[in-house]
UniProtKB/TrEMBL annotation:
This is Oxidoreductase. Residues 5-150 form the Ketoreductase domain. Pfam families: adh_short_C2. GO terms for molecular function: oxidoreductase activity. It comes from Tardibacter chloracetimidivorans. Keywords: NAD, Oxidoreductase. It comes from the Bacteria.
């Protein structure tokens, strides 16, 4: 489905990112894995051992120079850029708005929203040079609704949806599609940390009750949706915010 398509994945070593990387590799994509830290080297070696064509680029997506290097590395390595999954993100602090510091706000907005702008800025420039492409941005079900004590995260994820729509409008005539996914609660390390905290147990039960499918999602289920949006099977889909949320937004 994505045979020989060159695709960047940010946040590539996290729960959703790592699962999606594996889905895309199985679909035949050539991958640039981008994340902070060194875990990406291990993931790249694992995938290469399974026959995937991939490279890891250590990238702080909140840094414009790092993002520019990420995209130029992809183009230098493979000669083009066909797709991107802008997935890197950080969680909220879990406190009411008036208790947030400006640095708390800036950290979440910087990674969850401004970094998406930076990634698209350089990805789109590369795609314009090679005739088009497809971008998928990670928003959240909380990009549509709000949740208690998550104002900085809710604001950033709402912003991703607006940015996605604006970019889809700007570049639809140049064969660049831009869509967003809206995960519900997914079984990732972030959720595991919350589940292990007795103080959050009631909140996690409340979250399950908000998913009519009566469970949390699995990272691979998000990856499958990303694969479709990146592929030519979704060639008439742009500017869409696709829930992958077990019915969370249906309530």
């Amino acid at each position: 489905m994505l045979q020989n398509k060159v695709i960047i994945v940010t946040g590539a070593t996290g729960g959703i990112g790592a699962a999606t990387v594996k889905v895309l590799a199985q679909a035949g994509a050539k991958l640039i894995l981008a994340d902070i830290g060194s875990a990406g080297h291990d993931l790249a070696r694992e995938l290469a051992g399974q026959g995937a064509n991939c490279k890891f680029v250590e990238t702080d997506v909140s840094s414009e120079s790092a993002v520019e290097n990420m995209v130029s590395t992809a183009v230098s390595a493979y000669g083009r850029l066909d797709g991107a999954f802008n997935n890197a993100g950080v969680e909220h602090r879990g406190m009411p708005l008036h208790q947030l510091s400006v640095s708390d706000w800036n950290k979440v907005v910087g990674v969850d929203l401004t970094a998406v702008f930076l990634c698209m800025k350089y990805q789109i420039s590369a795609m314009l040079e090679c005739g088009g492409g497809s971008i998928v941005n990670t928003s959240s079900a909380l990009g549509v609704v709000a949740w208690l004590h998550a104002s900085e995260y809710v604001a950033a994820k709402h912003g991703v949806i607006g940015l996605t729509k604006a970019a889809a409008l700007d570049y639809g005539g140049q064969n660049i599609r831009v869509n967003a996914i809206l995960p519900g609660t997914i079984n990732t390390p972030m959720v595991a940390r919350a589940n292990s905290d007795p103080a959050l147990t009631a909140n996690m039960k409340k979250l399950i009750d908000h998913h009519p499918i009566e469970r949390f999602g699995e990272p691979r289920e998000v990856g499958e949706a990303v694969k479709w949006l990146l592929s030519d099977a979704a060639s008439f889909v742009t500017g869409v915010s696709l829930p992958v949320d077990g019915g969370f937004l249906a309530i």
